[in-house]
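Request: Give me one sample?
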Amino acid sequence: MAKKPTPASGNLPGQMQVEPSPRTFSIAIAYSRTPLPMTRADQMTVAHLISFLSARGHAIDLYGLDIGEPMTDQQQEWLGQHCRTVHLKSHGLLRSALGAMFGLLQGFPLQVGWFINGAQRAAIAKGINDVDIGYSYYIRSAETMRRIYPAKPTFVAMQLSQSLNTRRMVAHYRNLKEKLLYAVESRLVRNYEARVWSDFSRTVLIGEQDVAEIRSICQEKKLPEIDNVFFGPHGTDISRFAPREDVTPEPCSMVFNGVLRTYTNVHAITWFVAHVWPLIKKAEPKATLMIVGRDPRPEVIALGETDGIIVTGEVENPADYISKAALCIDPVQAGAGMQNKMVEFMAMGKPIVATTVANEGIGAEPGAHVVLADQPEDMAKEILDLFAEPTRAQTIGTAARKFVEQNWTWEAHFLRLEAEMFVAIDELADQNSDQAEGN
């Protein structure tokens, strides 16, 4: 059965557990949305980055796009308190469509052209001289700061290789129209990613698979190979996503969480219900599955008519639902980069059965922190085994929590990113000093 969605709470980032930095810088952040409300993984990352940089004492100039997702007064106040300046430029559907057409003429991917905004680029061009470093989040914002380097150190946070992402999506799409669209986008992205990295000081990516994909494209096109990579994955709020000793999980219950309009999630859960769920239900009739997430597509809503499955829609706090599950699943097969849901599941001390693709950007040890399975029969068997072995399931969940505490907090990742930013600033200062002495 499907339940009526509950409005989101618009949570703000938690207070970062860091001391003020003994040395500070000013930074311009370009982003294709507003960081708040945090309804998407990328919004969550940018909002937490702002929270971290502010807590460390750095001055932040935010250049975002207002795409019509309203912020509450509290959220606007939070941005004003944490940023030195906030520049949000209107970006409606007409502007997006015109940008996409302009981008195609330039050979840009659709997702880059869609977010081209002249007012945003002009504001950054005017304000970049007042900062020490520039940071463009996601490939969609790359054009805002492209070729500013070497006048200023700049980072482009691709995070994941969209070449790898779109290639996998094309392989798994069944809808012909969407398959053709992403086939075109895949070609455009491959050409773009092979070149855009060289116009920045650093390219931020999540894992080795993303680098290998871009490097192979550079080789294929006989271009210089990407050589300015910094690994900067997302973190998670381990105080919000934490084990709940006062909640007793329901036996033989599972949960899947994610934005349910996103194709990778839609494909993952519909594949699971079609190929894995019948095997589980046949062996364990009491098994249940909770599908949690905002904006479910019709095909996901329809899964709620399946015996034992509930589709919640948007909920105020996904952790409430994760805590009640005996185990979590992440059967994603398309996509690239890291799976935020995986880290959140692990942070809550939950045993997880996931695909190899889901674990690519996480690096959890199979068998110790997570159980991996790619084929329906294998996945069903692993899930049923964990149902039957609660002690083993608890051991894996406990190890997963420790793994997140050691490797996947926001603070740990951002401290490394901050250190790399200082390196980039100092490198350019040294180069300018050497050139001055040479003259």
In short: The chain has two domains: 26-235+410-438, 253-407. Residues 142 and 216 are 21 Å apart (CA to CA).
